[in-house]
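> agent: user asked for a holo structure of the chain below bound to nicotinamide-adenine-dinucleotide. Plan: (1) validate sequence alphabet, (2) canonicalize SMILES, (3) run complex prediction with ligand conditioning, (4) return tokens. Step 1... ok. Step 2... ok. Step 3 dispatched.
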Amino acid sequence: MKAAVLYEYNQPLVIEEIELEDPKAGEVHVNIAAAGVCRSDYHFMKGEARIALPTVLGHEGSAIVKRVGEGVTSVKPGDHVILSFVPGCGRCHFCLIGRSNLCDAHAATGPYMYDGTTRLYKGEQRISHMGKVACFAEEAVVPEAGCVPVSSDFPMDVAALIGCSATTGIGAAILTAAVEAGSTVAVVGCGGVGLNVLQGARLANAGRIIAVDINEGKLEFAMKFGATHAVNASDEDAVARVMEITGGLGADYTFEVFGSARTVETAYAMARKGGTVTVVGIAPMGEEASINAVSLTRNEKVLKGSYYGSARPPVEFPRLVEMYRSGKIDLDGLITRRYRLEQINEAYDDLDRGDVGRGVITFQ
Ligand SMILES: NC(=O)c1ccc[n+]([C@@H]2O[C@H](COP(=O)([O-])OP(=O)(O)OC[C@H]3O[C@@H](n4cnc5c(N)ncnc54)[C@H](O)[C@@H]3O)[C@@H](O)[C@H]2O)c1
Ligand SMILES: [Zn+2]
Ligand SMILES: [Zn+2]
């Protein structure tokens, strides 16, 4: 099957034929339908985050089940599924307390299957699977828990977005931060994930919703996803501007959705006393944000991380499907460009250049 393989950091992905082994017990072989172009993959391409190389990236995907391994009961061939990049093991402490996005067994095995091995090979060479998904390929083998069924009439490109950006962004607003109606929200970084934080804030009936980005096109786009104010951090002091918009108080909830220590500090500075700062972006390895320690105490700020929108995919994916169907969230409008797998490097050049919305690789 054809896949996009990352052999070395800072080198283009290589589109080539590789081998996919049969699913083992508890695993599912799928044909990928669509895969979203998320910055998390880009962090690996740039070496800002590390992964076992070579690897097949892609963690925002939808697929159709081709065949199932021994003991798989929740899906069958022909089923449409949304792939989860944290397929909870169901047994570790975090799965048991209902926080499967923090699953320990998944973290321990990383980009390999739960038995520590891979199903992807190029000749003798082992290739790892990002997030146990690896959807920048025509096919994949994934754990059963990584397959969340979706009705066959549901659009597969939209389904892919539910696999990461929609769940991560809307979950960050609704589940992690639990934005209150009428409150003021500021979102730093309005790409595929940040736009979903904006629409999550809109869903929560936030009052003022301030979009902050360095790209004017992104800010115009953000106004369609719930922003009431736009701040261009490349030509004004974003913290001062948010203070001004909020009458000197700062925002009740701020979100960092780019991935750098500097933007974490910005999101922290924009929060009001007692405000909640939620960090969604994945900063380059080793970067440390500097927070004035006593300001946490004296200003009672709350600093939180949000991984996968604090979601439990089998619970939240169907909820997002229903919110999309009833018109409460816009996912069609997020998709601004479609690509073939062969164009994946171009898709990441577009992401890097800051083209608006979400790119999606389609396979069917
Ligand atoms: N926590 C999670 O579970 C999770 C899941 C998915 C993605 N992520 C991370 O979220 C981040 C965003 O992902 P994405 O796919 O939306 O990326 P993206 O590239 O689509 O969007 C990033 C946005 O940040 C803006 N930006 C850059 N520098 C900025 C600055 N100094 N101030 C304000 N805005 C700035 C860019 O113009 C762009 O609009 C990445 O770090 C990604 O890895 C985290
Ligand atoms: Zn993602
Ligand atoms: Zn677990």
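> agent: step 4 complete. Summary for user: The domain at 169-307 is CATH 3.40.50.720 (Rossmann fold). Residues 38, 40, 59-60, 164-165 surround zinc ion (ligand 2) (CB under 6 Å).
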